[in-house]
Batch of 3 targets.
Target 1
Amino acid sequence: MNKLQEFWYCVAPQNDIPLYRGEALDDSVVTGLLTFLDYYRNNIQETFSESIQKALLHNPNFINDIRLLLGISDKRFYLDMTYLAHISTTANGERLVAEKREDLIKHSTAWFAGRLSRQGKEEWAKLISEYFVSNDLEQILNAFLSLSEDLVKEIFDNLIAPKEIQQKQAKYRGHGAEQLVAQSFYDAGATIYPESKHLTPMAERDPNVNLSTMEIVSHESAAAGIHSFDLIIKDADGDIRALVQSLIHTSDPGQYGVNKSDETVDIKKLIDRYNGSHPEKPVYLIGNVDGVGFSENPNGTIAKMLGVFDSFVQINTMFKVGLYMQQLGLTSGIRYIMLDDDYFSAEAKEHFKQKHIEPAGVELIDELPCSYEKSVRAGRALLIY
């Protein structure tokens, strides 16, 4: 498993990334909704899920009517479904998609609709219906069934939330991920700056660092070689030893993501240049990166960054923070680690054992030892001291 495969294996869906705190529809869209409501009303099955599955198999285009009923954007739907299809298996234990779990590939809404007219369509109908049911479709649908056609049209003309709300949510998820990684470094015993980042991730502006001298400088500085970072890790002498960049994309990273990845490459070159002159105390670049949105342009964003990060962590692999800090000699005390059996396969466990656990001098175990000082939950693992 290479770095990119590890990223996709452990990638987190939008709802797993912690939060720190419309436009009009044309007549054809409303007509489609009314058609779906009418079909459901006349074809109710024994269970609600079975009713939705039958509706989807009858008309795969009902996908768009249902997601609009729930206020779910097209992009949100296909990224969520990309993740669910990526981790799901059939009743026989076979993967729903052809690609391996290590090789996530984004699929469009139209692609998912197409699965409902092919061999194995029942499995896809079940997966998609479960997604809609988990988003409270039954309660919302029952409410709409009691409304007149005119009232349904009026409501749906103003259904979709303004884009600004979605952007704010994405921003707050990014800050939530920043707080989580800061907490992980703090729990590992590392010296972090800003000192309260794990408590109030939005309290201070990201610190600027002169990468030629590895000194924190004022925010007014704009000289070449000065960049801002979400978190700085210092050693016992107060010297900078690691710089953390957080880039969380639950949706399309767009040109911003491409530009940030290019900036990351430039930053690593400056760090390497500094390390060449200061081999006694090298500085490391750590990425806090996650989100299915990177599947929109992996080669232009996440693949490029993973190629230059000295290490990277995700929501599900926050345990790597403690392991990497211990490997570098910046913290100590972790003796064992237990990886979650319901998340990591045997092959994945072996990958983490060789690449991250053994280099930190830590033992991978399956059960808690008879005696230990403390345990810390970090992503999908338990660090034991």
Target 2
Amino acid sequence: MRFFTDSSVDAAVAGRLGQLGHHVETNLPEDVDASSPTELCQWMAKSGMQWVTADKASVASIYEKGTAFHGSIIFLQAPTEDIAAVFERYPALKPGRLYTLTARKVKVRQLPGADI
């Protein structure tokens, strides 16, 4: 899979995704506003990227604004946990889902606008 890790995610997480065989992007094009979750979602959808973030405000904004994103988001609520736990529990991430990695488990929630 192709993932975008935003600035809230430690570089070790991007490295671990690479070890798991995924392609990771950490830089945005200059014309994409990193502070706008809606704009990020639009860019990731066009680029075929999934999103990895530890930014609770961005995730909350997606639900508050009803931003449609038909990719997957991994929310690192417990950023010190190994991201591999997400793939152990869910080997194939489904579009339109938020996967939240906590200290004890991985929770899944449907994203707004997902017609799944």
Target 3
Amino acid sequence: MKNCTLCGKEFDENAARSLYAEAGEWLAGEVWRDAGELCQICLENRARLVMMYHHEYNS
């Protein structure tokens, strides 16, 4: 178990992920360089926000 660096909640890094969480994990690795440090909820929220506001990643 790890603690999320954004919200501080404990999470299982090996738990199944939603499609939004997978997109968030890609962003975490390629853009923000914090892969493996965020819980599924924060990954999902990051992916949704990027989809809405950072159109350069929506290709």
